[in-house]
Specification:
The chain has 191 residues and is α/β, with parallel strands linked by helices. It has helices at residues 20-34, 53-66, 89-92, 143-151, 163-174; strands at residues 4-9, 40-45, 71-74, 109-112, 116-119, 124-127, 138-139.
Length: 191
């Protein structure tokens, strides 16, 4: 039987990122309300983010492989910072390393995720690979934009996230005594 292992970094992050304890609360809410709980395990490892983009994607895959994971989601700009790395470099680096069976190949393989968004016409989350509709029908919002909107007390687009998770994130951002300026980069807005 296949199960889902949610393996979060719980070390230090850059200012403005969502701290581990808040992310764990969000994941707990999702597991409780939307997953089959007995098929999900949530764990963490105390590694600080290095924001090393593609190389950090490989590092995360190696760690997760050691925890028994065979697949790992690699999204757009995994472990990136600003506009330093190309948007999909953390995915393409996996194409440049040996594959299993060729010696020391990495056994934890990437699940490469394209741009994701909410599509009004699909009435749900979709990606460029799955949605045939136009840009005007989509709500494209990155994690950076989400953090910026929440830190400024702004409204999120309708249907952007599960209500339980948005409530946890709002509570966290409303409770901050020192606001952190979150700078967006061109990929955060889809440009």
């Amino acid at each position: 039987m296949r199960r889902v292992y949610i393996h979060s970094l719980v070390g230090n992050l850059k200012p403005g990122d969502i701290p581990a304890e808040v992310r764990v609360k969000c994941i707990d809410a999702l597991v409780k309300n939307y997953f089959v709980e007995q098929n999900v395990i949530q764990g963490g490892y105390p590694l600080d983010m290095r924001y090393a983009g593609p190389r950090e994607g490989l590092l995360h895959a190696a760690f997760r492989q050691n925890y028994g994971c065979s697949k790992m989601i690699i999204g757009r700009d995994h472990a990136g910072v600003g506009d330093f790395y190309g948007m999909f470099e953390a995915q393409t680096i996996f194409d440049k390393i040996p594959t299993p069976g060729e010696g020391k190949g990495l056994l934890c393989q990437p699940l490469k995720i394209d741009w994701t968004f909410y599509c009004y016409k699909c009435d749900g989350m979709a990606s460029l690979r799955t949605c045939p509709h136009a840009k005007e029908d989509r709500v494209l919002l990155s994690g950076t934009m989400l953090r910026k909107m929440l830190s400024e007390g702004g409204d999120l687009p309708d249907h952007f996230g599960r209500d339980e998770v948005v409530a946890i994130l709002r509570e966290y951002y409303e409770g901050l005594t020192e606001k952190v300026e979150i700078k967006t980069h061109k990929a955060a807005t889809g440009n």
